[in-house]
Amino acid sequence: MTTSAIGDSEVVDEQLNPLPPGVVGRLARRGNVPLCYLGDPVKSAEVFRTGPDGRRYAVPGDWARREPDGRITLLGRGSSCINSGGEKVFPEEVESAIKAHPGVYDAVVVGAADERWGETVVAVVQLRSGHQELTLSQLQEHCRSRIAGYKVPRRMHLVAEVQRTPTGKPDMRWAKQVVTAS
Q1: pLDDT digits (tens, 9 = 90+) for 63-72
Q2: Tell me: the pLDDT tens digits for 136-149?
Q3: Is 120 exposed, middle or buried (0-12, 13-18, 19+ CB in 10 A)?
Q4: Which residues contact residue 40 at a Cβ distance below 8 angstroms, ignoring those fewer than 6 apart?
Q5: How far separated are the first and last CA of the chain, in Å rounded?
Q6: Which residue from 109, 133, 135, 134 is spatially nearest to 122, judged by alpha carbons?
Q7: Mean pLDDT lowest for which of 1-10, 56-65, 82-91?
Q8: Is the pLDDT of residue 151 over 60?
């Protein structure tokens, strides 16, 4: 999660109406917004939209919440959001809680199919050197003090190294393979 003050940004509902502080919605940028993606009219229509106020917005798919002091907290990408029992779980928030554990060097969180909840939260964890063991129950106890109970990982996979893309982002395809392979 990232919190910052952004002058040309707003948190909006699906119709591009601004939302009050504390309500989760989509991050939208107004002002100097491109007209389209060259050669991609479908993606352009999804991202570059005109609101009911007549203003143009770029709505890239990020979930956010405006804070009472006006700052915006970025919660995560809509495409990576985990839907567990009807609740939205943003992997970035869970990853931050996991990485705060002194034995964790790196972590990636993904959703895995679950018969009861639709999806369940799964952590792929790389331990710090010198730490030999971390159990799921230890990780869950640690996370419960930082995030809501429904966001706490229900499964964990320990790996020698968390794979990242050349740009440093978590390799979600690799993480999904780790989760589904076992």
Answers
A1: 889 999 999 9
A2: 999 999 999 999 99
A3: buried
A4: none
A5: 29
A6: 109
A7: 1-10
A8: yes
Q: Tokens for 35?
A: 């007209």
The CATH number assigned to the domain with range 82-181 reads 3.30.300.30
* Six token digits for residue 75: 């919660």
Find the radius of gyration of the CA atoms of the chain: 18
Angle between helices 136-144 and 91-99 (to 10 degrees): 110
Superfamily of domain 2-78: Luciferase; Domain 3 (2.30.38.10)
pLDDT value at residue 3: 47
Q: Which uninterrupted H or E stretch holds 180?
A: helix 172-181
Domain borders along the chain are 2-78, 82-181
Cα–Cα distance measured from residue 181 to residue 112, given in angstroms and rounded to the nearest whole number: 11
Q: What does pTM read for this prediction?
A: 0.70
